[in-house]
Amino acid sequence: MHGSPSPSEHETVGAYALGILDDAEATAFEAHLAGCEWCAQQLDELAGMEPMLAALADLPGTGTPAIGESLSARPSPRLAERLVDEVAERRAQKRRRSFYMVAAAAALIVGGPLTAVAVTGGDEGGGKAPVASASNPARSVFNTLSDKLTATDAGTKVTGTVALQDKAWGTETVVELKNVTGPQKCSLIAVGKNGERETASSWSVPEWGYGIPNAKTDQAKQPLYVQGGVSMPVNDIDHFEVMTFDGKKLLEIDA
């Protein structure tokens, strides 16, 4: 291919030489390169410039063509300027893609627990701002399961209830905990009649705790609900244990 190229066709020369194209982009460019004399010439001119290209890719700003002055293979001023712009644009595109992925993940994380939202208040009668309240999915499942096991530990004063249900894959569990203090990390462990131990769920308890009767905030007064599951059937489970990550048993619940 001869003549002056259009940017849309040949704008990836520097990015290809730098190695910042993804697999699909690199494959597409290589197919284009096979029949493009202009791009082949550009790659020849870029030979020996890897240090400058790497520096351009790592710079927090847009870079500068002056980096190439210390190299044995120097680009023309126009090519160096174009490479700076191209690499900067590629970095911007990758930042935008990363941002969109993070935003999508955040939307899933936020959207997951908020399965039902009821808005109260409004503009009438005093103009109070709307207040949103979200349902707890684990608590909703807990309330639908009829098979429940409850116990209170005389030493730790922790009260727990495990709601469970047989599934084709094992046993579904939802644990409700009250009077558990923090900060600490805990797990619900199913212990089989054969002695096998399997973790059903794990969680962190913040410093204010969960289900504390005389707590100063509603947040601390609310019980904790955590959903999980194990591979063993209900009939193979002997008991459940609530254990801290450092090996302290807070509660045992017989099955």
UniProtKB/TrEMBL annotation:
Domain of life: Bacteria
Keyword Membrane listed: yes
Keyword list, A-Z: Membrane, Transcription, Transcription regulation, Transmembrane, Transmembrane helix
InterPro entries documented for this protein: Anti_sigma_zinc_sf, Znf_put
Domain named Putative zinc-finger: residues: 13-40
Parts of the chain that traverse the membrane: 99-119
Protein name: RNA polymerase subunit sigma
Species for this entry: Streptomyces longwoodensis
